[in-house]
Amino acid sequence: MLAFDQALSQLLAGTGALGPERVPLEKATGRVLVEDVVASVPMPAFDYSSMDGYAVRSSDFVGQGPWKLPVRGESAAGLAPSPLADGAACRIFTGAEIPPGADAVVPQEDAARDGDVVGFTAAPPRRAWIRARGEDMAEGSVALARGTRLSPGQVALAAALDRPHVVVARRPVVTVLCSGDELRSPGEPARAGSIPESNGYFVAAAARAAGARARVAPFMRDELEASRRAVAAALGGTDLLVTVGGVSVGDHDVVRPALEAAGVTIDFWRVAIKPGKPLAVGRVVHAAPGAPGPGARVLGLPGNPASASLTFLLFGVPLLRALQGDSAPLPTRITARVAGSLSRRPGREEFLRARLSFAGGEPRAAILPNQASGAVTSFAEADALVVVPADRDRVVDGERLEVIRIADC
């Protein structure tokens, strides 16, 4: 078995963004840039007032106050102002360009207007209440770096830079292929020994949340030739094939040989994690007859619900992010105080489902009581994963351990 970090590193090694595409800003949120967005003009593009008030020349405030200046002209947002008259003040509004010749703004609450004259009791410092040209960003600077997954704020920045489109990575196509003669779709009539399939819904939803296009293929039977045909069909036009179930060593676990028969080279199989040890990772290198061209990636997940969900979050989501060129494909880990204790057999890194809260200003992760790999309920309740190092034989209530927020996966 490969250690978790080794398996993840091997999975992501050499993975780069898929082909680029140009999208309008209204469709850019959540997409990953494949080129730098460079400021073609300084931001802001001109000096402007950050307050309603009066634009003045600070050198006009000579001697002891108070001072009175005639009001000449007005500067409003969206209009080019005239130069400031000598010895005068100009009425100005928030966001309006500073008139040529002015070097300070006095807020209106610090001024007393009387007809066409305005009085001041304090001399303004030079550059007071002026936002300078290029103060936020210099012309030619990188505003948004390649590999950035665009947030709403970053989309707004691109708009402020006068960019109606951005160039992003193509969204990966994910095909989910679930294995098992016992499976039926939710809502179909029950038959003896059947269960409604749920893993595919988790994987498809998580893939879409990671920016992919997900499709769910018809169920795969527990028979080698039928499975081979299902794999070959599912590989067509996909960037990542995710199989669920049938990758262990049971008599009816035929997915791994079916993958190999369909032209998939298995890079590694079995990872030292709990739950989720029987994980197959591969790719299409030499296509079999009827299979797609080289390049498709393959994840063979275990069939137990908690195991399938966990392994896709830990391996599938980072891979999808890497395929989009995301500069940070791995989830951030925080340190939290654990609520709960358990004894365990060392040897595999374990990811305990938990609920995260904050107490006394610090995060606290409450370990859920049901950690069975077959429990569908655990990921419906959990919002965090407590990471237990492989060499540990127990978790002690109140100790601090690394935690991954599921929302960050």
Name of the level-1 CATH class of the largest domain: Alpha Beta
Largest β-sheet summary: 6 strands, mixed
Name given to the CATH architecture of the largest domain: 3-Layer(aba) Sandwich
Strand content: 25-35%
- Enumerate the spans where pLDDT stays under 50 for 5 or more consecutive residues: none
Within CATH, the superfamily of the largest domain carries the name: MoaB/Mog-like domain
Question: Helicity range of the residues?
Answer: 10-25%
Task: Give the averaged pLDDT, no decimals.
Answer: 94
- Radius of gyration, in Å, reads 31 Å
Please state the structural category: alpha/beta
Q: Give the termini distance in whole angstroms.
A: 23 Å
Instruction: Choose one word for the global shape.
Output: elongated
Number of strands: 28
Helix tally? 7
CATH topology of the largest domain: Molybdenum Cofactor Biosythetic Enzyme, Chain A
Number of structurally distinct domains: 4
Oligomeric form of this entry?
single chain
Spatial sequence of strands, sheet with the most strands: 7-4-6-5-9-8
From the structure above, extract its key features.
single chain, 409 residues, alpha/beta, Molybdenum Cofactor Biosythetic Enzyme, Chain A, Molybdopterin biosynthesis moea protein, domain 2, Molybdopterin biosynthesis moeA protein, domain 3, 6-stranded mixed beta sheet, 18% helix
